[in-house]
Amino acid sequence: MKKLKHLFDRNLSWASNIKEKNPEFFSQLSEQQAPEYLWIGCSDSRVPANQIVNLPPGEVFVHRNIANVVVHTDLNCLSVIQYAVEILKVKHIVVCGHYGCGGIRASMEDTEHGLIDNWLRHIKDVIRFNADKLHNLEGDEKLNLLCELNAMEQVMNVCNTTIVQNAWKNSVDLTVHGWVYSIEDGILKDLDICISSKQQLDEKKLESQ
Ligand SMILES: [Zn+2]
Fold first, then answer.
1. How many domains, in total, are found in the chain?
2. Which of 53, 60, 74, 187 is 20 to 30 A removed from 181 (C-alpha atoms)?
3. CA of residue 66 to ligand 1 center, whole Å
């Protein structure tokens, strides 16, 4: 058990299932990747990017962290966005939050959680930005609205990166989307924030003022 043999067994059966259906699958995929989508989602084990949208390996470039946060100075996330946009030339960036997010729930509490509190600080900022929408709500209702508002805020953060700004300046076809996923029924919801240009971003900024 120490070497996690069961996972290697599962891997072998997974790879042979795929090769049975398409013997060339891995050899073709090893030559290049050309995904159309960059997925920025939560690390939560119940929110696996490819499976949710039912796409095989090679179709989705993925970045995940606790509570799907896009921090302006996070070199890890920014590098993923840059590689996805400038090298892979993805056409869509999806920020996908999920209801019942533990990271978001923790950011609503006053309890100390250690190092992670510094990360959750970014979500506390989202609470502050949206105080008027949240102050009358309690419990899961508040949590789930905050899960949506956080995904929408992170869409704005993606749009404000120099990478996306420069792509739009160069007339690159690139759209940033905000979604939320329900771990209770496996269904995605479009948050109706879908930004394809600097002009649309400026309009959204005006709306939220
Ligand atoms: Zn989460």
1. 1
2. 74
3. 6
